[in-house]
């Protein structure tokens, strides 16, 4: 049995212009699924400020868009990789400052990693940590986004699990500007408190041609894991 209604993604939550931020979409679908670990597959851009059908399907699945051609779908999954220790808070702060001082090619006005004010975005700005095969960013989610308990809503935690993978591919591998998230699999292990210091960091699991597989973790400033994910990013096709 399938039940459906519609959602409208506010324009605040964009990734590329006029396209809903993939991490936010994944988080919404994960919340609807209710599973501990969820895989989200993206099949097309989700528009902002337009009603889009969302439906719960059998087995904890969720799909967004028309049933014949969904834009994204989610299902319960597993994560099977080791998570390295988080870099230090000082290293994460320094990495974010390097990103902001000299924004790398491919930066857009993204809710996750765009150069926005703290009340308009997550400000996850990763760059490479010297001596480690990691990118990292200090991450202090604004209290503007807090729920009544002072926590960052899970869909926004998923947002913070998205962009670091892109920058891992850029700084640690061969990923090109304009790459898009094809899949995002994540799990939240403990709440993320708004206004508190956290570390978002990422590393590469593998690469093959246009395909790049990063993993991402969010930890407290002391290194306690809050959430982890893996993703598949795909480069744009070369110009003819």
TrEMBL record:
InterPro entries registered for this protein in UniProt: HotDog_dom_sf (IPR029069)
Protein name: Thioesterase family protein
Organism of derivation: Streptomyces shaanxiensis
Top-level taxonomic group: Bacteria
């Amino acid at each position: 049995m399938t039940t459906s209604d519609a959602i409208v993604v506010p324009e605040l939550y964009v990734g590329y212009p006029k396209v809903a931020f993939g991490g936010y979409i994944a988080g919404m679908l994960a919340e609807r699924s209710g599973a501990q670990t969820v895989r989200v597959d993206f099949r097309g851009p989700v528009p902002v400020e337009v009603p889009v059908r969302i439906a719960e399907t059998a087995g904890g699945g969720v799909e967004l868009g028309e049933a014949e051609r969904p834009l994204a779908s989610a299902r319960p999954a597993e994560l099977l990789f080791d998570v390295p220790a988080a870099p230090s808070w000082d290293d994460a702060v320094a990495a974010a400052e390097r990103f902001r001082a000299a924004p790398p090619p491919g930066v857009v006005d993204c809710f996750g990693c765009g150069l926005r004010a703290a009340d308009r975005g997550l400000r996850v700005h990763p760059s490479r940590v010297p001596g480690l095969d990691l990118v990292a960013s200090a991450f202090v989610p604004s209290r503007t986004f807090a729920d009544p308990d002072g926590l960052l809503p899970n869909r926004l935690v998923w947002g913070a699990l998205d962009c670091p993978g892109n920058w891992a591919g850029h700084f640690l591998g061969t990923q090109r500007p304009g790459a898009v998230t094809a899949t995002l699999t994540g799990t939240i292990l403990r709440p993320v408190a708004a206004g508190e210091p956290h570390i978002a960091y990422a590393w590469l699991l593998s690469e093959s041609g246009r395909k790049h597989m990063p993993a991402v973790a969010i930890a407290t400033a002391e290194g306690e894991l809050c959430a982890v994910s893996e993703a598949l990013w795909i480069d744009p096709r070369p110009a003819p």
